[in-house]
Specification:
The longest helix has 16 residues. This protein has 98 residues and is α+β, with helices and mostly antiparallel strands. The protein is globular. It is built from three helices and four strands. It has one domain: Alpha-Beta Plaits (2-Layer Sandwich). The protein has a four-stranded antiparallel sheet. A hairpin with a 6-residue loop joins strand 2 and strand 3.
Length: 98
């Protein structure tokens, strides 16, 4: 079963152009991470400061390993905090059968 997550980022309006190359480089590393099946960047068409990262993972263990990596010095993204207007919001999604 594919495991999905969405990470919501609020980009500071005055740093929007600076954020693009930082996130592009971050995506290369993220997409290469073991267990990553899909990563898509989405921007709210009515609010360009709201960026969403849609993720699909092979397992929750793989997804958690990625989160742990990003929280470590090796996975930290220099300068990211200065681009954000608040902390990112993580939503982990479970499929529901109706």
């Amino acid at each position: 079963m594919t495991h999905r997550a969405i990470v919501e980022f609020r980009i500071r309006a005055d740093r929007h152009d600076e954020a693009k190359p930082v996130f592009a480089a971050m995506l290369d590393t993220s997409r290469a991470f073991e267990g990553c099946l899909r990563l898509d960047w989405l921007v709210d068409r009515d609010d360009p400061t709201l960026w969403l990262l849609y993720e699909e993972w092979s397992s929750w263990d793989a997804e958690q390993a990625y989160r742990d990596f990003r929280m470590s010095p090796a996975g930290a993204v220099p300068g990211l905090a200065g681009l954000l207007d608040g902390r990112p919001r993580l939503v982990r999604l479970e499929p529901v059968a109706f």
